[in-house]
């Protein structure tokens, strides 16, 4: 049977740690790399409910998008719900791995998956990561002329695949859609009846930016690439005001909805790579925010 280390290597291929944000905490966070893996459970966030599901299902590895250790952890005790959860997993021998922003930005990662759902062409990173460095470089196109010229750029086959090296994604709708048609496409792609959005000051949508999760900071990058809309999970009220003032559309899918589907896909990818194991997505997990 494959080991935790084998699964880790596969996950590092899908979501290279070198493209994770420098503030992030990705990789194997709990467990023995040499332990055998028969069952894998994927989830967006490791909660006590998901941990209980993993122990009950005798999972050997949990792949959680959001890390369990983010800020400096000074103690792990049963006096907190997170501490009790981690100790329960450790006693049961369950390892924990988090790909987080490396999966957001990976060549087959969340932002690319959203671009595919929306039918975008010529998909590229919003923020480029130079091959010799892991530091993301924000887009810097300023003049409208340069920005519009970028619409007609063709990809040089001799260059590195731009989908490989960068955070966020943007792409082209070909042909462009009227705003109401584009919004309908988003709703169909995510199986929802309504959208929270800041309307764009445009009649046609020809270029769309994507940054899953909480990513309002990509608004300026989307503007620099002449995108009419930025699709993200959530952002601040002031970012919404900034978008409206700039005439840029902003779609807020919700943090959970913008990322959770990709953990189902990750389980499928691991099943394909390791057909001898069981890799499934959590059934206990749900969006904490509901509508009524």
- Major pleated sheet: 6 strands, mixed
User: How helical, in percent, are the residues?
Assistant: 25-40%
Which architecture name of the largest domain does CATH use?
3-Layer(aba) Sandwich
State the order of secondary-structure elements, H for helix, E for strand. HEEHEHEHHEEEHEEHEEHEHEHE
Q: In whole angstroms, how far apart are the ends?
A: 46 Å
Number of strands: 14
Throw out a few tags for this protein.
Udp-n-acetylmuramoylalanyl-d-glutamate--2,6- Diaminopimelate Ligase, Chain: A, domain 1; alpha/beta; 292 residues; 23% strand; metal ion binding; six-stranded mixed sheet; five-stranded mixed sheet; 2 domains; 10 helices
Topology:
Layout: H1 4-14, E1 27-30, E2 39-43, H2 48-56, E3 61-64, H3 81-92, E4 95-98, H4 100-105, H5 110-118, E5 121-124, E6 127-129, E7 136-137, H6 144-150, E8 166-167, E9 169-178, H7 179-190, E10 196-198, E11 204-214, H8 219-224, E12 229-234, H9 237-246, E13 249-252, H10 255-273, E14 278-281
Parallel strand pairs: 2-3, 2-14, 3-4, 11-12, 12-13
Antiparallel strand pairs: 1-4, 5-9, 6-7, 6-8, 9-11, 10-13
Helix pairs in contact: 2-3
Subunit structure: Homohexamer.
Biased composition (Polar residues): 152-161
GO molecular function: hydrolase activity; metal ion binding
Please characterize this protein's 3D structure.
Helix 2 runs parallel beside helix 3 (81-92). The chain is built from 10 helices and 14 strands. It has 2 domains: 4-100, Udp-n-acetylmuramoylalanyl-d-glutamate--2,6- Diaminopimelate Ligase, Chain: A, domain 1; 107-257, NIF3 (NGG1p interacting factor 3)-like (Udp-n-acetylmuramoylalanyl-d-glutamate--2,6- Diaminopimelate Ligase, Chain: A, domain 1). It is elongated and about 55 Å long. It is an alpha/beta fold and 292 residues long. The longest helix has 19 residues, at 255-273.
């Amino acid at each position: 049977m494959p080991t935790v280390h084998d699964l880790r290597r596969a996950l590092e291929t899908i979501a290279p740690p070198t493209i994770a944000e420098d503030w992030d905490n990705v990789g194997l966070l709990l467990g023995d790399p040499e332990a055998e893996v028969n069952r894998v459970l994927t989830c967006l966030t490791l909660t006590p409910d998901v941990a209980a599901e993993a122990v009950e299902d005798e999972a050997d590895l949990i792949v959680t998008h959001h890390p369990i250790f983010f800020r400096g952890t000074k103690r792990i005790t049963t006096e907190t719900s997170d501490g009790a959860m981690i100790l329960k997993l450790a006693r049961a021998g369950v390892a924990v791995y988090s790909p987080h922003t490396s999966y957001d930005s990976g060549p087959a990662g969340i932002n690319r998956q959203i671009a595919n759902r929306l039918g975008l062409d010529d998909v590229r990173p919003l923020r480029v990561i130079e091959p010799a460095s892991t530091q993301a470089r924000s887009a810097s196109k300023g003049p409208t002329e340069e920005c519009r010229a970028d619409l007609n750029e063709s990809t040089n086959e001799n260059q590195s695949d731009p989908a490989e090296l960068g955070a966020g994604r943007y792409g082209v709708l070909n042909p462009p859609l009227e705003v109401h048609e584009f919004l309908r496409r988003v709703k169909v792609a995510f199986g929802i009846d309504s959208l929270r959005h800041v309307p764009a000051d445009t009649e046609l949508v020809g270029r769309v930016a994507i940054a899953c999760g909480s990513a309002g900071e990509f608004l300026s990058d989307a503007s620099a690439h002449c995108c009419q809309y930025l699709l993200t999970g959530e952002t601040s009220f002031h970012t919404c005001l900034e978008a409206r003032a700039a005439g840029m559309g902003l779609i807020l899918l919700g943090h959970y909805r913008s990322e959770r589907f990709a953990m189902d896909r990750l389980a499928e990818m691991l099943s394909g790579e390791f057909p001898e194991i069981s890799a499934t997505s959590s059934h206990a997990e749900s969006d904490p925010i509901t509508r009524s």
